[in-house]
Fold this protein.
Amino acid sequence: MLQISEKEIKKRLLFDNPWWENEEQIDERFNKMPRRSYFELFFDLITDKSVNRALILMGPRRVGKTVMVYHAIQRLINEGLKPTQILYLSIETPVYTGLSLEQLVNFFQELHNHQRKDALVIFFDEIQYLKNWEIHLKSLVDSYPDYKFIATGSAAAALRLKSIESGAGRFSNFILPPLTFAEYLRFIEREDELILTFFQGQSNKEIDAIRNIYELNQEFINYLNYGGYPEAVFSKTIQLDSSQYIKSDIIDKVLLRDLPSLYGINDIQELNRLFTTLAYNTGNEVSLESLSKSAGVAKNTLKRYLEYLEAAFLIKCINRIDRNAKHFQRATSFKVYLTNPSMRAALFGFVTEEDEAMGALTETALFSQWFHSEKIEQIYYARWKTGEVDLVYLRPDTQKPEWCVEVKWSDRIVNNLNELSGLVQFIQENGLVQTSVTTKTITDLSSINGIMIRFQPIAEMIYLLGKNIINNKIKPS
């Protein structure tokens, strides 16, 4: 039987690393793409030499992980690292099949006569396709403390589990979520056109104001339909047929390939039915009983599938509290959100401004911005016999509500305050003095029984939330 030769492997390494010979530049198509807002945070971790750890870049498919790696490679070259000190390779490349990470590193060392003490930066893309990757990577980190190893992967379920189990003290995880609405506007170069930013007062506080809420809403609807994926933002072909791109290339690969291979799932159609049911009900309350009947999945199997889908960054389940912000000892109902609202449009068709699904999708979009914050683990929804509140944040130390939001895609609520009785009841029960209610276009202030109600267009709230979460990561307050 013919074996892949060492010459062919080294030839492929040269092909995958054109900067070794090509005027110290990455491919021009990557250079032209805008940087994710997370780039500086990611790059700082790459260049941090204070700890001997591999950096694991995780996230859903097609959110720009590989492109961010290429941007990092270009930045390293621009800042003086020799191009031959940087190795990039994709583990799923057929030529590398059956090779260990150390063998690949050895080929790199031989090509450029690298020594053990050299300052090298090595990127392993799609590392989950290597069996027992975490053992290989931990060994490299221990053996070559002067090398910096960065690995990426989309099958987050396996990456997260194995990096925690086997990489204690050797791996640092970095999660790249889908685009925020603020990033989307920057990518299409409409942020400055639609948002007026100015600085106010002696503190020079940054203030954002909406220039045109109607135009912003149009882009918000585009964001719901395809805007969570960088590639879709720049491709009219993908925008016109998102089901082909998002469903076939993103959702199906996770449901039909990644999760079944990682967890030995035999009934793939069962998993697919469950996800389809969840996607259709994004932003709504569901129960194990109703899901089991609707998707035709046994309850015990259902719980495992939900864990897998969450770990793969497709969904997020949040728990229910009562009107006193108390947890339920037996949680039979919960809410499920898609991590990216664009997945629903890919499965069930584009939404329009008047679409019945807009209410649930706007709530999903608001919640999806919280995927960019560790505070997501403290977000709940409240429901009791006579009322409900869409989103509630509980302080981690006291488990008391700090804020709550009622989400609407309508302006009629501003003149129908009686419809907010459940929200008012929750605020009174928990000692809050103000709250926010979203609208379609109206900005206003009102008061009910001494409680300040701030009405704000949902597109504006989502823009500001995504922008502020990332800004606080980059420039902690």
Observations:
- The CA atoms of residues 220 and 306 lie 29 Å apart.
- DSSP finds 20 helices and 16 strands in the chain.
